[in-house]
Amino acid sequence: MNEQILINVTPQETRVAVTEQGAVQELHIERDSSRGLVGNIYLGRVCRVLPGMQSAFVEIGLPRAAFLHVADIWAARNGNGPEQKPIEKILSEGQTLLVQVVKDPIGSKGARLSTQVSIAGRLLVYLPQDPHIGISQRIEDEAERESLREKVHALIPPGETGGFIVRTVAEAATEAELQADIEYLITLWKQIQLAAQKAAAQELLYQDLSLATRVLRDLVTDSTERIIVDSRETFAKVQEFAARYTRQVLPILEHYTGERPLFDLFAVEEEIQKALGRRVDLKSGGYVIVDQTEALTTIDVNTGGFVSGRSFDDTIFKTNLEAALSIARQLRLRNLGGIIIVDFIDMDTQEHRDAVLAELRKALSRDRTRVTVNGFSQLGLVEMTRKRTRESLAHVLCEQCPVCLGRGELKAPQTICYEILREILRTERQFNAKEYRILASQKVIDLFLDEESASLTQLGDFIRKPISMQVESSYTQEQFDIVLM
Question: Which residues contact 472 (CB under 8 A, 6 or more apart)?
Fold first, then answer.
């Protein structure tokens, strides 16, 4: 796929772009002031148990208490009886326990926790409480899966009760590499356990790698041709990490020293700006509209100015095929998660619908995040879900508009004029002012001086009080004040 990984580092944040055939496919951003929490292990303190919800809130030193469901409590799944233990039989308020963050805080929701610890290495994921040996689903060959299972089982030290999940990158690993990963992970777990014995409640015991080094562990594949880093200090760190854990990556590591910013050189900055917009233009002339809400993400496909030479059905089919590829890329680029509804242009033939769905599934197969596509619904919409593990790109880079408060629309100046007129009338009935002054934005005052001048005069005559106006340049279109003189 001609894949390249670009790592841009500044003192405040690290940004990683994954490109395929020159097009940006993924963006990862980590700010020093707000590093991701997934993988972190804390000594948590239970602050509230909710039997009705079979869940608990656990304090781990964050502004909001984290959430722990009974299904994520290892003790509940390993009781002596055949049924899962209720949470009130396992936890009590004030109790401390070892917890790991499995989902970052998103929006108004706190972090999601689990008591089943998993520690990721380069080739393996260590499960200290679970003796199971699992194999990545991406390793499809059954003989290879069984061979890896036996190899790892033979390398586990005598007396070790934990288990491992074999990652996709371990497919071509040697026994020595697997052995080194096993020893490193077991030692790391022992250090965490020792730290927990001395720690105070809400203390951080283990933090996952920084984004730059996580790239070598999680994002590098056989198709990665170059990893370019524009920071000398970070390049030295990833080189040191690679020399210890991922030696095969060393030949493709490059330190970029050019004058032009790395993300400018590969047009990543431009792609970031596009990924924050609603509209995504297709090469054919069609376009896609992406709307992200708290409940779900909707994606609408339109033909725009595209007209095929053969027929209207052919135009629709080609636009939908191109949109399927674009949608799969946008989901990765924007890191959209949760429920996703796609409204393709209506197609008359089942053959065309099947072909578009197949194209979408093929494009989504390259996504590292789990995606489930349910096909076309009775309303002709494609329903799908994408696992949500971190904030979307828009939530990381943007904040709610203080003017429209997230609505995406403003009240028209005329609407504000009529609100002001009603407010003056309401105030007049409560207070006996001598005069009223309207403080509002330029657009609203201009409207009162022009089209709505008669309305303002009519109100002044009705209440028999003078009404003056004053432009407040700092006011937004929806802001106004009525001053009693």
Answer: 439, 440, 441, 479, 481
| Residue 137's pLDDT band (cuts 50, 70, 90) | confident
Paired residues of 17 in beta bridges: 6, 27
217's tokens: 């562990």
pLDDT in tens, 198-227: 999 999 999 888 899 988 888 887 789 999
DSSP code at position 457: H
Would residue 405 be called left, alpha or beta, if left means φ above 0 and alpha means ψ between -120 and 50 degrees?
left
Element containing residue 268 per DSSP (H, E):
helix 268-275
Phi, psi of 368 (to 5 degrees): -75, -25
Quote the strand ranges of 377-424, DSSP E.
382-386
SS3 label, residue 377 = coil
Contact 17, 263 (CB under 8 A): yes
Asked if residue 27 lies in contact with residue 335, where contact means CB atoms within 8 angstroms, the answer is: yes
DSSP letter (8 states) at residue 172: G
Determine the Cα–Cα distance for residues 237 and 243; give it in Å rounded to an integer: 10
Q: How far apart are CA 30 and CA 47, in angstroms?
A: 30
- Dist. CA 234–CA 218, nearest whole Å: 17
pLDDT-derived band at 81 (thresholds 50, 70, 90) equals very low
The CA distance from 136 to 140, in Å, is: 8
Is residue 169 scored above 90 in pLDDT? no
In order, the DSSP letters of 61-101 are SSSS-EEEEGGG-HHHHT-SSSSPPPGGGT--TT-EEEEEE
What tokens were used for 399?
A: 């904040």
pTM beyond 0.85: the answer is: no
